[in-house]
Write a structure and sequence with these properties.
Strand content: 5-15%
Structural class: mainly alpha
CATH topology of the domain at 4-54: Rubrerythrin, domain 2
Bound molecules: s-citryldethia Coenzyme A
Number of helices: 18
Strand order of the largest sheet: 1-2-3
Shape: globular
Length: 434
């Protein structure tokens, strides 16, 4: 990790002065290192929601929320989305450098030869009620991989064994997502094909019918899917990545750790928002398309309605990913000849919110989830699959965050608290209680 310059700060507590190191990151971010705060002062900090707390140093992703900047290993998200493919970005996140031709071919070939899942996984699918949510199935299926690769349970597994588990996850996630889609339709699964690239293989497993011998993924869709997966690939210490780091810090196996990340992503305030956005847009459309009414509801503190796909903990400017997705949305719908009325509603909603003082004052802008669902739907995915597609994109980011934590041998994560409950009490036997 690049050198980090240091200086000190002084905190005065109970009349005593305490010195703590200040560290400055490569992009000029500053932090007070309070690793020794409790040992030296007896105090802990309190920061509910970790809005001001850095959990780690990291060299993977840089965000600047004020300027709307996102970079992976120094490369801008705009360049990566425009010029790279998803597997290249996965390699970059995991190994720190973009692969050269040979390195990419070797990585791509390794992934292609791990795409099959054990046939017994089909039996697990049989236990899910028809129509059960894809995210619940995805959590179960990823966790079940630990049953088929028991050696991955060994926390002291070799680097080679860890690398094989990483490959298996990257390779099998598209297969599992496609199986979830097929099972929802009651259709037979389509097996992975080793002569297709990562995204084409995923689209082929998903949309090819077993009886349809000449299905070819549309290049427009392949390009859009690569872009969407890249835009979701990592986002530093978001809720699900922090979950992966925390679960992984207990040395739980990587399958269980990633399943925990998928679980955290499911929440409507996090990755689940992309499904909520589409449902919200459909609701507004069904309600006659009066966007101002819904903007007003979102502002009303007595109304639980929120403008899904708007606002972000870090971005207080446009989410750079939302800008790219909005443009991709227009391109894909035009090229596919699709006129989706909810796209017009989304644009009107964005325009109404961005000129409304409530949203402007709170710096609430469209985030990555605001437009993505419109493209997923144009490609043919049902709304309930959207968050599973977010997880498919985020997988290499989660693994890179876990890998960085594990390689630095970070301690098990165990936050402190401030107790506000009862003082000591005498136990009264049940028969004597009033
Ligand atoms: C993702 O962290 C990441 O990087 C996540 C992510 C990633 O790539 O991993 O970027 C992916 O999760 C994107 C966010 C998707 N979620 C949504 O779109 C759900 C809707 N947005 C929110 O609920 C909210 O904006 C959050 C959860 C995203 C951020 O919440 P914060 O930072 O805790 O902010 P907050 O809830 O305290 O809101 C601050 C103010 C409040 O008003 P006041 O109390 O100041 O009067 O803004 C208001 C909120 O009521 N507000 C909204 C709003 N979002 C915030 N009001 C209406 N509609 C909204 N969407």
């Amino acid at each position: 990790m690049p050198d980090i310059k240091a200086q000190n700060c002084t905190i005065t507590l109970d009349g005593n002065n305490y010195e703590f190191p200040v560290i400055i990151g490569t992009e000029g971010e500053k932090a007070i290192d309070i690793s020794k705060l409790r040992d030296t002062t007896g105090y802990v900090t309190l920061d509910i929601g970790y809005k001001n707390t850095g959990a780690t140093k990291s060299a993977i992703t840089f965000l600047d929320g004020e300027l709307g900047i996102l970079r992976h290993r120094g490369y801008s998200i705009e360049d990566l989305a425009e010029k790279a493919n998803f597997l290249e970005v996965a390699y970059l996140l995991l190994r720190g450098e973009l692969p050269n031709k040979e390195q990419f071919e070797d990585f791509d070939n390794s992934v292609r030869h791990h795409t099959l899942v054990n046939e017994d996984l089909q039996n697990i699918f049989k236990t899910f009620p028809t129509g059960s949510h894809p995210m619940g199935q995805l959590i179960a299926m990823i966790s079940s991989l630990s049953a088929y690769y028991p050696k991955a349970l060994d926390p002291n597994r070799s680097a080679e064994a860890k690398s094989r588990t990483v490959l298996r996850l990257l390779a099998k996630m598209p297969t599992i997502c496609a199986m979830i889609y097929k099972k929802r339709l009651g259709h037979p699964v389509v097996y992975p094909s080793n002569n297709l690239d990562y995204v084409s293989n995923f689209l082929n497993m998903t949309f090819k019918h077993v009886s349809d011998s000449d299905y070819q993924p549309d290049p427009v869709v392949v390009d859009a899917m690569n872009k969407l997966l890249i835009l979701h690939a990592d986002h530093e210490q978001n809720c699900s990545a922090s979950t992966v780091r925390l679960v992984g810090s207990s040395q739980a196996n990587l399958y269980a750790t990633i399943a925990a990340g998928v679980a955290a992503l499911w929440g409507p305030l996090h990755g689940g928002a992309n499904q909520e956005v589409l449902e919200m847009l459909e609701l507004i459309k069904a309600d006659g398309g009066n966007v101002q009414k819904w903007v007003d509801k979102a502002k009303d503190k007595n109304d639980s309605f929120r403008l899904m796909g708007f606002g972000h903990r870090v971005y207080k400017n446009f989410d750079p990913r939302a800008k790219i997705i909005k443009k991709t949305c227009d391109d894909v719908l035009n090229k596919l000849g699709i006129n989706d009325p909810v796209l017009e509603i989304a644009k009107k909603l964005e325009e109404a919110a961005l000129t409304d003082s409530y949203f402007v004052e709170r710096k609430l802008y469209p985030n990555v989830d605001f437009y993505s669902g419109i493209i997923y739907r144009a490609i043919g995915f049902p709304t309930e699959m959207f968050t599973a597609l977010f997880a498919l994109g985020r997988l290499p980011g989660w693994i890179a965050q876990w890998q960085e934590m594990a390689e630095e041998k970070q301690p098990i994560g165990r936050p402190r608290q401030i107790y506000t409950g009862q003082m000591p009490r005498t136990f009264i036997p049940r028969g004597e209680r009033k």
